[in-house]
Fold:
Amino acid sequence: MSHFTKKRKLDKNVQDNLYFDSYSDVTIHEEMIADTVRTNTYRTGILRNSSLIQGKVVLDVGAGTGVLSIFCAQAGARKVYAVEASSIADQAVKIVKHNKMEDIIDVIKGTLETIDLPEQVDVIVSEWMGYALLHESMLNSVLFARDKWLKAGGLILPSKAELYIAPINDFVVEDRLSFWSTVKDQYDVDMSCMSDFARKCIMSNDITVNLVTVEDVLSHPSKFAELDLYSVTTEQLKSVKGAFKCECFGSSAVNALCVWFTVTFPGGEEKPLVLSTSPFKPETHWKQAVLYLDEAVNVRQDTTVVGEVNMSPSEDSSRHICIHVDYTIGELKKQSKTFSIPDGYSGEAQQ
Structure:
């Protein structure tokens, strides 16, 4: 996902234009298609539901290059409406023609909320997820499509999302914080006074999108929220929250909390298929969302980390997510911290 710099609150039209502009470049689509976990899971999830897609009408929300629409056509769809607001829709038209599927797939350039379809649909497919699931996600558009265009009893792919959290020890951060104490030995200049400044910069309120290794994770994950795409409302997305409880594996130091998500495809005649962004699973382009605490806390075997997470849209931009966490580690008093992804995170659509 791409992010933009803003010094003031932007109206929704400006936010939307910046968001869709970020999808006009090849880089983000290359990253998504090259994410084999993502793309293969979608392909498998669609083909496993071919009995429910064959001869039916499909709506692809945020179609991008149209790869999911082509998967649906390969699964036997009678008609696919591929809706894409960014200029990458022009490339999707070429890809569809190149694959000789223009009789099945109609690429519609426009926002889901403003376009008109000639008929109701049997299936909605969308790859709508953003960092930490909800940052710059298209879930609101999927729900709009569900309520306006999906027939009663229709199919949504994927149909469920779940959010998880776990305490971690990021060893790279520990090395960065201790670096300033090593400068004197190397250059005979004492820069240890930089440590507090470094801590404020590194252990900030930013959501850091990073790869977390299995060795960094200090407990089993705790699920704190679940979204059923057949029933969740846009009003409920204004505050996605839940409680968590984790028990630490052994002696270490907790310096961050890690958030990730899964989405589930109904399995048709087979068991449901899960696309996971867990650090325990193969890497995806979503990586994990890391929330650094103000101070590291030493833990032992079975030390509990408990609290509540509340994810809500930023006041500055409805597409940006804020994560507020109340947490207690062991016997220490409860702490609170609010995190957001920094402006201009990817540097691809700055103004």
